[in-house]
Amino acid sequence: xxFWTGKRVTVTGGAGFLGSFVVEKLQERGCRDIFVPRSRExxxxxxxxxxxxxxxARPDIVIHLxxxxxxxxxxxxxxxxxxxxxxxxxxxxxxxxxxxxxxxFVAIGDGLFLSQIHASAVQRRGFVERxxxxxxxxxWLGQKDAPRPSAIVxxxxxxxxxxxxxxxPLPAARQLRPGDFPRDTGAHQQMLRRKDxxxxxxxxxxxxxxxxxxLYVEDCAEAILxxxxxxxxxxxxxxxxxxxISIADLVRLIAELIGFKGGIVWETAKPNGQPRRxxxxxxxRQLFGFTAxxxxxxxxxxxxxWYLSVKGR
Length: 313
Fold this sequence. Notes:
Layout: E1 8-12, H1 17-28, E2 33-35, H2 47-57, E3 61-64, H3 72-77, H4 79-100, E4 104-108, H5 119-125, H6 133-137, H7 149-166, E5 172-178, H8 186-197, E6 201-205, E7 211-212, H9 217-230, E8 237-239, E9 245-246, H10 247-258, E10 263-267, H11 282-288, H12 296-311
Parallel strand pairs: 1-2, 1-3, 3-4, 4-5, 5-8, 6-10
Antiparallel strand pairs: 7-9
Helix pairs in contact: 1-9, 2-4, 4-7, 8-10, 10-12
């Protein structure tokens, strides 16, 4: 609790899905000087806006959550925009922090940050933070399913972390990579619409075989603040549960929780995305004591209940 007392904290993206929970937990910890820049006032893609943000907020700590995000379809449709906007926001905010000697800079990386690890390494160990030999080199090589633009940005930001920390102006820059969040998805919406209208089928991309790992948003927010309080390294750290679920099983579970009785049609001509995503979460536990507390089914049920409450307003 005392760590945050008297500190000025800027949370970019603090009005968003994850950011709002981070701000709430900061307040619970006694932080009273929290600055949440809004995009209409601070277009952080522009360097002048990043400079003005630092002048106005004078932060001791920056938690950078702002990003242009989307699923496979959005990334395929807007690769240049996603890459440019996310790269410019992260690079410029960190550089301005370096120049001003900010105390701590915490950034959230894309869940596909290590999407280009050699396939054998992924199958053996899941996503690990530190690699060696051929696996380390293959971070920069291609594979069958091209990564999202934001994943390339995450790699770029990782390099910048190390360069920025080398001269010691950023003594505690770090990048955290969370799993996905069980939140409002296309499957949720389709099932609810079909159920309301008596529809019999929903349509899902791919064949359902890829796996994903999900982290409940409140757990993720807690992990971010624990890292800010206790971790002073520059290496990225995975945030997750260490447990994966196939997309097919996920869709079936959503159907069960919603009460959808219709059919599920897999559009195999559409991309599957990355074949597997499962994080090695040992370092988060070791370095700053984070262990996810919310079981996947529980988190998904909370998300669906929230969505239904909002939909019914």
